[in-house]
Amino acid sequence: MSTATAPAAGEAAAARTPGPRRRRRRSAEAAPQTGVRTRAATAYLLLAPNLALFALFFLLPLGAALVLSLARTTGVGPTEWVGLGNYEQLAGDAVFWRSVVNTAVLVLLTVPASLALGLLLAVLLDKPVRGRAVFRTVFYLPYVLSGVVVAIAGRWIFNENIGVVNRVLEAVGLERVAWQSGAVPAFVSVAVMITWGRLGFCMVVYLAGLQGVPRELHEAASLDGASGWQRFRHVTWPLLRPTTFFLVVMMVIECFQVFDLVYVMTGGGPGNATQFLPTYAYAVGFGARQQGLGAAIGMVMYVLVLAGTVLWWRARKDQEAEA
Amino acid sequence: MSTRPRARTAGRFLGLAAAAVFMLFPVYWLAVTAVTPREDLAGGRPPAFPNEVRLSNLSETWQSLPFSQWLVNSLSIAVVACVLSVTLNLAAGFVLAKYRFAGRGAIFLVIVSTLMIPIQVVMIPQFRIVAELGWLNSYWAVIIPRAAEAFGIFLARQFMLGIPDELLEAARVDGAGNLRTFVSVVLPLCKPLVAVLVVFTFMFRWNEFAWPLIVLREQALYTLPVGLSFLQGQNGTDYAGLTGMALLTSVPVLVVFLVFQRYLVEGVARTGLK
What we know:
Chain A has 15 helices and two strands. Chain A is mainly α.
């Protein structure tokens, strides 16, 4: 445990450098040897309420969801065990497949859009510019609003008859769009509102990430004659990779949680055009009271999110190994 | 040479201003609609600038449904949940960042892995557990199952990893106990973290929709987002009332955000949320 006696200056500097992995190792090594037993007891004591809550409200329900997905039940009356029957039923359920495809398309549309726009705004805000604090607040503001409020704004703005979007389209001589009765336009309107609500979060996280890019690297690259774009492409972007990774995971998970916005804005319609896995799971599990089938949809979501995270994690590891 | 950077700064400002207009527009449009006389909206041409600001739209809608009761419900739930969650987050973050004990890595992994669970996966069993505990139709049904949150614990841990161990050891050498060390050494260093946790927790609880919708069955117990969703659709949507209430019910969360927002980027940067 040599680091326990390391000079304080060195330790403080290490704590300041952005690099969670390095910090973690150091703090573990630096933990003092005295009173280990009482400290472990304190640690468990302080963690106990958290662990109890996680066990009761996440781990137990996760196990219960798996069990429930093998049953047919409405919550009242007898439970009928059907094995993989619910999963077989889903395999032949067109609305389920529609929800899977819709969720995938939502990820492909909104995640890159939120990240790209968030990054663009963060880069514009990273250097001194007049009104920076105001801009930052304005861009972040939609993220603070509830999904219900964003949905109400979306319903009103994209209202087919008197919505402002169609009025603008008309004013510039374009056709009105069937935002509420057309399948594709309805989907687009939902994706637009989701991106509007989330890109401020991406911006703040990217802003934080940009603070970790050393100015000296940029200056050195400038001296070597690198243009602004080249500096971004070869210095900033690679250093933002962990930030991007975090945001992709967060945004994908949010696509698998999307509920209030869709429930209020389109109700999954028209004709399931905006039905996603979470809204369909709710409609089946609570609307139609087929709890086992709803749980089965939930398990499919869980497996998809888990598989996606693992795949992405691996890809990132490979990339890092190459670099 | 001197004009180029200036031109670039001006360009950046213009770009940001354009983006700001785009980002603010939906909120502006909600506000304009909220104060436009209903007969103007019915004409199918809501004006870009209201000819007349009619604030009675708001008061009429407020009185048409138990909004005051819903406001009390929402505030009680958000404040209690915030205090409880932030306390639990800080305790767990401190322990996971600064204590060494068997199972630390495994416990952290289990907590973080719950981040990956889409809430709809566990909602039906959660509902059954809450019902079993007899909490349906109570504030506790909303507060307790969400009190421990992986996201907050993750943020707290990442932030506290950056607190030098020397400080904690010095406190210990001076004879401070665990609690004393936490309160007088760790907490004062954690202001940006607490700000971030308060903003996120208040926002999540205030805005939550699906879970309260399920566990609060009585109208008198609804939170604002749940109540709000009932304003639309009944006999054709009253957009003046709906948009007004949407904005009004966002005010508390906006206040919390504005009070704490200057800590936000610093807090996020130092929590290693990147």
